[in-house]
């Protein structure tokens, strides 16, 4: 576990009512986080230095390196100059899968589609939802977004981070993760769900970002039937969600939202 705080106070000047004043404001920490498997660094991303074990697990899952939590032997979060190294030891089968993945990598990558060097890999097929019968009321989607906002402690302090939450009807938002990166927040949530053995098919994921294709791909790999967001989707995100059997809900604001794919999962009240 990391001891570094997720935010710190900084000095600023504010302009109010025609005058400048000195004041403090909390801002989120942003550090380099490497994810390493078997002693080999797979990717480095800028992230908020909390819940890094969840991040490493979720990243490994959504990158196709592991399929279940038992594929991992150990995780060590090591402080290094400028950030942290999440060192993951894999079981033999997953280590072989990682070795194959490495052979297709050409070099450093950015966030979102880490380790992707070709169009074919970027547009990789996503899992199809199988035998997921979960349905939701409009109230579930509206409540999920409202509850996520209330449970984002870091964003409440800084107004500068994304959030991802898992909502279960009759229970509310049971898990929340935050990060300066929207992909990172969703990976952290994926790791937390895998560790805590939540059943993804029984709930929905809600995020505070736009819906890009990478967010849809991650949600499909997690196995949730519905992904909801505060902002709009891209065309490719819609197309990918439709093929995966994922219900895509966007622009969840107040008492309103839009459904783009598989609207049958949202019941008429």
TrEMBL record:
Entries under InterPro entries matching the protein: Cytidine_deaminase-like, FdhD
Protein's UniProt keywords contain Cytoplasm: yes
Primary location: cytoplasm
Cell compartments where the protein resides: Cytoplasm
Keyword Cytoplasm: yes
Domain of life: Bacteria
Active site: 111 (cysteine persulfide intermediate)
Annotated keywords: Cytoplasm, Molybdenum cofactor biosynthesis
Role played: Required for formate dehydrogenase (FDH) activity. Acts as a sulfur carrier protein that transfers sulfur from IscS to the molybdenum cofactor prior to its insertion into FDH.
Family: Belongs to the FdhD family.
Protein name listed in UniProt: Sulfur carrier protein FdhD
